[in-house]
Amino acid sequence: MKISDILQKKKTLSFEIYPPKKDSKDIDQIFKTIDRLALLKPDFMSVTYGALGNNTKNTVEIASYIKNKANIEALAHLTGGPSSFLDIDNILNLLNENKLDNILALRGDKPLDSNIEYLKYFNHASDLLTYIKNKDYDFCLAGACYPEGHNECNSLYEDLLNLKIKQDMGASFFITQIFFDNDYFYRLLREARKMGITIPIIPGIMPLVNSKQILNTIKMTGCSIPLSLRTMIERFQNDKEAMRQIGINYSITQIIDLLANDVDGIHLYVMNNAVVAEEIINGISHVLAKVMQ
Ligand code: FAD
Hints:
Elements (H helix, E strand, L loop, with lengths): L2 H7 L2 E6 L6 H15 L5 E4 L10 H12 L3 E7 L5 H13 L4 E5 L18 H9 L6 E6 L10 H13 L2 E8 L3 H13 L6 E5 L5 H11 L5 H10 L3 H21 L4 E5 L4 H10 L1 H7 L2
The structure holds flavin-adenine dinucleotide (FAD).
The site of flavin-adenine dinucleotide has 24 residues, from strand 3, helix 5, helix 6 and strand 6.
């Protein structure tokens, strides 16, 4: 089923997972995680592609498990940046064979080493969207967006002009980069709507449950950490359990505020941690029941 069709009827709850780095034992582990996450009844689960140094081949296999074994709708991420037309054709074919209907079309992060050839065929996610739209498939396409602006853009305005291109090229909803200050999301929404971006924009929330993850997240996404959260982290960073509680409770507060402001859905970057997802969803079960029909 197309996620765009679900979004026409209701707000969505979704989880993002990433493929394991290498061998098949890890794949079995991720299948177990998916089975647990499925019990929380998300509307869809998304699977990253080649992010965090992971194996790109596993994305389709895992998305297929989500859809065909766990019976939850799947959203497969796909990055154009490092790929050739043939690479993309092969993946599209595989997705189609596995009855996967939804693709999050991305450019991918440029490698830090500028000698590595990266953008051979797809300079931007909009090029990938156009390429897929012109093929003989009927995928539901989504794109990424950035509440604090993408780090290669000079302003949020410039970034939103480019976001509009993604809508024009066939994206039917957006999922945001993580953020820890909801005001960035509300500003994005307000400015995007002014610029004629009309499709659903789903906020992406990540529970920061340990100190290492915090450092990696800031490095990879460039998102800012509000003073209140920074103070909590600095005070409790050496206490594992306290950090877990802070991460979970901070996410819960963010999500309740977003739902009270009538957002299109909630996308939880669960980082393959089903226990954290369970604690968050159980912690907002009444709020979810009230708004997610
Ligand atoms: P683009 O939309 O191409 O944007 C990149 C930059 O180019 C922006 O500054 C934008 O303003 C500008 N731009 C866009 N279109 C145009 C245009 N037509 N003309 C001129 N400028 C333009 N990375 C992975 O490797 N794998 C993943 O699975 C993955 N999943 C992600 C999921 C989400 C929800 C998000 C938010 C990010 C994800 N990323 C992933 C990271 C993403 O690949 C990087 O943020 C990357 O730097 C930008 O990707 P994009 O698709 O937003 O690129």
